[in-house]
Specification:
The structure is a single chain. By secondary structure, this protein is mainly beta. About 5% of the residues lie in helices and about 65% in strands. It contains one helix and 14 strands. Strands 1-2-3-4-5-6-7-8-9-10-11-12-13-14 form a 14-stranded antiparallel barrel.
Length: about 280
């Protein structure tokens, strides 16, 4: 039963991606340009009251451009079955520019079947990431392992901004989690669409997993010295592995590939986590 459901999900996801690749979209993949190293739907430890993490992301271009990087640290306060609050500090390096940022990331339960995620990020004077970044998503689980979501993101860059609306559907099947999320993004006077699909396998604890994510659409890129942001066709795939190594410590490693013309690149993520 589990294999048949996973197989059906994969077939639907691949078909959806093929349809999107034939469109001339002007939307944006909200994942690629986010500064978050926490992850919008990252599972949280069920017992720890506090946790912290340090993450390094390094991306090398096939065209010989200078590498991109993100370095960030986050501290979280967990209130079991109620909420999680996180403060994240980081530095993003792109196109020879370094932009620092700070963000507040909050999860809050509203009853036993509904919860929300609010992320507020700022980077005063930023040239290659949003100067202000607001993200809100609400999740609801009606039962039988299903979870549905709707969200909105507003990202303001140096001289322009982008509005993104999202809807998603997820399904828990034993130790598996499957999710698809559709987004519609307005950049200037253009509107387009993108899709992201995730398959995740848990290893008992909610914060131990291996996951695969595939996204198709456009990513938002800000170039220093320009008057507007650029939405570019892209296709990306990533795989992440997160595991406890004992005494509250854990590791997270990931590999990402992005097909985006002269911005095509490979990325590596390494991180350490500590729960207490």
């Amino acid at each position: 039963m589990t294999r048949s459901v996973i197989g059906s999900f994969a077939i639907v996801l691949v078909g959806w991606l093929v349809c999107l690749s034939a469109q001339s979209v002007a939307g944006a993949n909200v994942v690629n340009d986010s500064t978050s190293t926490i992850g919008i739907d990252e599972p949280q430890p069920s017992q720890a009251k506090w946790s912290t993490s340090a993450v390094h992301v390094f991306s090398r271009f096939s065209s010989g451009r200078p590498a991109w990087r993100t370095d960030a640290v986050a501290v979280r306060r967990h209130v079991p079955r109620r909420s999680t609050y996180a403060v994240e500090l980081g530095l993003v390096g792109r196109h020879g520019e370094d932009d620092p940022f700070i963000a507040l990331d909050m999860y809050r339960n509203f009853g036993s079947h509904t919860y929300g995620n609010l992320r507020l990020g700022v980077s005063p004077g930023a040239r290659v990431i949003p100067r202000s970044d607001i993200f809100l998503e609400v999740f609801h689980g009606p039962g039988n392992g299903w979870e549905f979501s709707a969200g909105y993101r507003r990202a303001d860059y140096v001289n322009s901004g982008a509005n993104t609306w999202l809807v998603g559907a997820g399904k828990y099947i034993g130790n598996w989690y499957l999710r698809a999320r559709q987004s519609a993004t307005q950049v200037g006077g253009s509107m387009g669409y993108a899709i992201l699909g995730t398959v995740r396998r848990y290893f008992g604890a909610s914060d131990e997993f291996v996951g695969l994510t595939v996204a198709k659409g456009r990513e938002i890129v800000a170039f220093p010295g320009t008057t507007s942001i650029e939405a570019r066709n892209s296709f990306s795939g990533s795989i992440f592995y997160q595991r406890s190594i004992g005494r509250g410590a854990g590791i997270r490693v990931g590999l990402e590939g992005v097909d985006d013309g002269d911005l095509s690149r490979w990325g590596v993520t390494t991180g350490v986590l500590w729960n207490w």
